[in-house]
Write a structure and sequence with these properties.
This protein is of the alpha/beta class. Helices cover about 35% and strands about 20% of the residues. It has five domains: about 240 residues, Chloramphenicol Acetyltransferase (2-Layer Sandwich), CATH 3.30.559; about 170 residues, Chloramphenicol acetyltransferase-like domain (Chloramphenicol Acetyltransferase, 2-Layer Sandwich); about 260 residues, 2-Layer Sandwich (Chloramphenicol Acetyltransferase), CATH 3.30.559; about 300 residues, Rossmann fold (3-Layer(aba) Sandwich), CATH 3.40.50; about 60 residues, Roll (Luciferase, domain 3), CATH 2.30.38. It is built from 32 helices and 44 strands. Strands 25-24-33-32-34-35-36-37-38 form a nine-stranded mixed sheet. Strands 5-1-10-8-6-7 form a six-stranded mixed sheet. A hairpin with a 2-residue loop joins strand 24 and strand 25.
Length: about 1100
Amino acid sequence: MAIRASSQNHNPGAARLPRRVAVQSDPVSREAHTDLANDAAAREQNLGLYSWGLAADGLQGTLYGVQITPYAILMRSWKNLPLTNGEASRLLLDNCNKPLRTELKEVFISALLYSFHHIFLDRSDPTIFTEGHGRESPNPEVDLSGTVGWFTTLTPIYAYAEDSDSLIDVIRKIKDVRRRIPGNGQPYFASRFFNDSAWAEFRKHEKMEIVVNFIGSTSHLRQPGSSFRMEDLEGDSLARFGQGVNRLAIFEITIEAKEDGLHEIRHQTKIYQWIRGFEQSLIQLSTVLRDAQPQLTLSDVHIPSFSYRQLDELVRTQLRLITPNLDNIQDVYPCSPMQQGILVSQVRDPSKHSCELLPPKTGAPVVDEERFIRAWEHVCARHDTLRTVFFESIVHRGNFEQVVMGQVTPDILFTECEDEDSALQQLESQRGHVLVDATSIFVLLRDLALAYDGSLSLVPGPSYRSYVEYIAQQNRILNIEYWKSYLDGAEITHFPQLEGDKMSMSTGIVSFEIPDLVSLLQFCSTYQLTQASVFQTAWALILHKYTNLDHVCFGYLSGGRDAPIDGIEDAVGTFVNMMICHQSLASSTVIVDAVSKVQDDFLNGLGHQHCALADMIAGADLPSDLFNTVMSYRHGFSESDLNPRMLRFDGMRGDDPTEYDILLNIECGHNKILVSMRYSLSIMSSEVAASVGNAFLQVIESIVSDRLNTISDISLLHDRDRRIFDEANGSLPETVSATVHDSVIQQTKRRPNSDAMTSWDGNLTYTQLDKLSSSLAEHLISLNVGSQVRIVPICSEKSLWAVVSMLAVLKTGAVFVCLPINHPIQRLETILREIEAPMILTSTTQGGRFLNSALSIICLSSGFLHNLPTPSRQLPKVDPEDTVFLMFTSGSTGRPKGILISHQSLCSSAAAHGQRWDIDSQSRVFQYAAFTHDVSITDVFTTLIRGGCVCIPSEEQRMDDIAGAMRNMRVNWCFLTPSVADLLQPEEVPSLRTLVLGGEAATIENINCWAHAVKLIICYGPAECSVYATGTDSVLKTSDPTNIGRPIGCRVWIVDQSDHRSLLPLGAVGEILIEGPGVGSGYFNDPERTLKSFVQDLPWTKSKCYRTGDL
């Protein structure tokens, strides 16, 4: 090995060296390297040129008797310094680069800098320019190795050596700085001559102090029989360059590997010492590096802003645990944003982001196991992603980074199948989405087939690190600003829990095919729209209908393989990116316009797709759980795309990664489009999932069939769901054509001496109740009730006599209406005027409130009723269609509504819910609700119609001692609101067997408290439909408190709230429509409101239905 150093001749006795100047030496990023080189080189060149006695500005004057012109340094001398230690030369050219993964040029530059630093103690370290061959082509298809021409590049390298640095420390610094220079210096060097601004910026770089060129070995020219040979120039008198030739630098050092082993300049002694020190450094390095253990430098670890202290900690705490052999570590770099999200999700829930794939089978009877193993090892060797291990970051706790192993021996498990069909050798494998996306599965299977055939390339595949580095170069701030603007107005969009098991950790999948592909293609062609845009619009409409939100959003997985990285289409890794689709869906929007907007939004967002999802959402100041559904659209692959000769595959399916409750995978094949919806069983059952899939198909059909449709015209109900609804609702329940009082009389005949009522103020048997109510009825008839007085108001506290009066009014053929005892008299007078009542039935305590009115007041008491004559006349005939009661709402949101319910409606409801909830002759029903609430009507009359006993507490007990009243009356059946139920504990009411909750939303606390102790039922129903419309079976501890059960004596439809003639699919959020015999007659004296709420002649039924207004 020989070192040829050429230098500028000069007078050795002149200028003194300047003192050492400290220069920042921290490693820099690629982006900052040019600036660092510019700054360091300029400063050092000025110092350097002065130190050798040269003028920095213009270089005017003479140098060793030769005229110096600006930017011209003339060649004056050169010397050969053979490395005298042949063993050191051999070692340096052999294995000395392995421990630190260095190149020989880096070792030489380090030795040069180290020796310079320790010889020239009174000046700063120089910037060293390195010559490169420049034949690296950005296009792998262009090979410059055989082209004659001048491709040389010059690149500055500056690393500040500390006095305490060892040779190894300097090597690490030089290596790290050099490896961070983009393109081996080609971009820097080209910019100096092909860019006007760079020409001015780097002008001082022409005044170089030291240039090093390592030309490698020329031993092949010295072999016997070689056509060419190197001719050594003998003697120092024969210069290699003429004295008038322009010099590149003050010192030009050329290092050449040879088989055998400066004129004068200022500081010649130190220069000689420097060169000899350089030689000694190389000799020292030859043994130090030979004996050194493998270690990493910062340039081997592509983690931004990493220090050697952190690197040492990383090796000690992480990498040594992964592998004791650092020499087997190929790469270390951060995770991509998608990988980061997946890994964090897996920490929270290890079951996320994994699925099963059933890949290979062969046309031959068996798979050659050894051949298959070799094929898979070949695939692992080609794709570094398959040799990757993830570890928690020591810099950003909670985040992850990844290390790529150089060589691995993959574990392969073969399973034997017992039956003949399974003997097709299906290999089950678990895969993690953190390593591969759906497209990567195809690449893996293709390469596995090629490797099995023996035709897979030995060239390593594209590195995933290139993609991670590309993402890191994106403008994060600009991306966040885009998503902040785009997500303005977005709402949390969670597909609701429908009939799922909240405790389930499993997933289900429903698959279907787009049926009318021709219409879809024609629609897209006509309006220049993509299929993906149609699917995104359809899913936005699904979310709109199922969540009742006008601003919906969901995740959309983009392929990510449009990044400008060579060979990315054949790379293996997680390249997908999560984008967000946010749509505002006004009902008047034309569908074509909606699809166009989705497409424009997607195209605009592509330039910002590499932004981390967490950054998108946080930048828009939105919650992290913004959405729970994701769509993926991609072109599918088939076995024919693999074109294998010996290995075929089943199960060519791959899902992109997701931790969300619903993942909609749309795979576009050659002549069909397949949709698979993977869903969490915690939010929906398989039946509901099928319905959601049908709705998705129906929306697509609506979009492409009538292009002038608006969003409000879109139908979600598929024919299959309509059939499901019809089957679930069944036929319309038959109407019980009877009157309430006649039904009670039937029970009197069956059980005359059974308790009909137990109250704080007494007890009545069915016979006693019948006699007292009939006596009062005759008295009322004598006062023209029934014939002229159609509505009789009742105002009473909880009492036996209030119920007796209700039944008595019914026997007259009139209608009763209960008035609240705690409302102001002015409010009561308003109702009384509206119903034009001439009389009122009251308790003895309430009668005084009406003394100033013109009403006839009948005060109910035990004495008054028992003193009435025994009934003797025939009571009037009442039609089942006649009204049984009138009930006014509170009027808190406007004018009170007077609800009219017929006898047959109440009897039909009582028959249905009484049978469903086991109200019978053994039932002792607690009558808690106020008489002005609709539940009080069923508490009383369903119980009496079914032969049970009504248990009535006093107002004081009702407010202060519910449990005591229930115990005393041995109550076993009760309706309460959830908030009142919270006031009780099961052990306080040991006789209670059935508890029905309604009137407000039930809670999980209600379920936890009562589900184990009683038959717990959750119900729903408006007063307009005879109180009850739906109810659950017995609720379990795992049940959803929002589930209101199945229809009771009616049919329930879910319709679009903006169009009650449009049915919605199962689980969609819409208005509840109730059809059945329990539906009321309308509103008292309010035909307009009646017409709006009680509708008929709908497309699917001619029966009267009630629009609840509830969603």
